[in-house]
Task: structure prediction
Amino acid sequence: MEKQGRRLAVVTGASSGIGEALAWQFAKHGFELVIAAEEPAIEQAAGALRASGATVEAVRVNLATAEGCRELEERVDALGVPIEAIALNAGVGVGGDFARETLLDEELNVIDLNVVSTVRLAKWAAKKMVGVGHGRILITTSIAGIMPTPLSAIYGATKAFDLAFAAALHHELKDTGVTVTAMLPGPTDTEFFRRAGIEDTKLAEEAKKNDPAEVARQGFEALMAGEERVAAGNFGVKLQAHLARFMPERMKAEMHRKQAEPGSRSS
Result:
């Protein structure tokens, strides 16, 4: 029996960074939460949210696997509370030259987490939401999804997929009461650069990084407004998203390569 009158939000990749900040946005606006990530820090994130008065369940799973996605789905289903919102935010990257530096297993893991888990969980959540006639889906893509990304080829391709996927779902579901919003952050002050092995690049320069709390706020507001997409971050991110519409792919690729080259970060 489903319990009525409660609002539940599911947030993936919520142990730190944008995902954790999204969880705080939902908590601030009265949602109960299920937050998921592979890292042990998901328990600390849940503890901090509970201390603020939020109702939170933490699920430590590897969403790059079918088993991990299934465990998250089962844990949410067991609550018996309809999902009002889901933020599909879990993602990783790998930096380096595709043919000569990066490892295939690591890149397949990027695809499994950034693409396959997004599709799995979106399918599960969207069917539930359409069944009850309401719901909100937020898919975290990236400003990298609107350009070729040399030296991060697989990451950029996964984010281009996420962006196209979110846009298609937004239009498919437009008459169902379910909205789908793509959030496109620019460089943000998170663990992403360290995990991707690109800390010594211009992309990782502190002065250019956005505040994850501000990115999450803009993403949350766009989600609640039912917007199709939002370039989340400072003015530079929004300008880049606008100008990218008019720039040839060759130019965008060269700009990204210069930003992603090892050792390019200012000392």
In short: The first strand starts at residue 8 and ends at 12. The chain has one domain: 8-260. Residues 149 and 156 are 5 Å apart (CA to CA).
